[in-house]
Amino acid sequence: MVGMVDYALNYQANGFSVIPIDKRSKRAITKFKDSTFTADDIKRFWHEEPEANIALRTVDFFVIDIDINKTENGYQSLNDWELSQYIPDTLRVTTPSGGEHIYLKKPQGVEISQDIRIKAGIDIKANKNNYILVPPSNNSKGQYKWKNKHPIAECPPEILEILKTEKKKSKVNFTTDYQKDEYSSKTAKLFEQVVYGLGDKGGRNNALASFIGGLLLRGVEVDAIYMLAKLANHYTPESLPQSELDRTFESMLRKDMDGS
């Protein structure tokens, strides 16, 4: 009988950087930063956690991550985005939540930036220490499945150019006056929100979701994220009710676990 370890070893033998993932938390069960594990490492990991899911570090490839949920339809966003016309025939995976992962090779010597929510329902997973779940990984909603068996295609130059342009656009202002004419990196913005709050009343929920998502992406421990979210909410001029903060936190955590 083929077990998860056999799939993991097959990925490793084909040159991918494999990471064991805890099913419940969707977190790596070992430290993996800048690490490529051997076959012996993989056998040991899955001996200790036979049902662990499998993820691959996005070292030599990146993923256009399409999500669909009650409020956002990543497929619609992709259809409306000029980038879609340049996507070649390439490897694709369907996710348990109804989304899709579109795989593309990173051109040699070209940096591709991670970009969460580059469009509504679309993330770019590209950092070499980020990872993406692969078949036959599964969760309570179902299983990750190959949509096709195409090889991973080279990223067309048109897509690279569009991603660069979108990255520049994504440098957004806070809605509060203190940040009115200044730009900051996404990581800097996360730090600033802890002490300056989540912005104006109209955008607090989206800002909180983005804040939590940004910390989850960067591998911050879940308990620490919750405490930081409470701090950011505390320093928001008109704070969200605790119940609303909890709902948003749980929703983002489920999305991170189910997902994408």
UniProtKB/TrEMBL annotation:
Residues 8-159 form the DNA primase/polymerase bifunctional N-terminal domain. CDD domains: Prim_Pol. It comes from the Bacteria. Pfam families: PriCT_1, Prim-Pol. Residues 193-258 form the Primase C-terminal domain. Gene3D superfamilies: Bifunctional DNA primase/polymerase, N-terminal. This is Bifunctional DNA primase/polymerase.
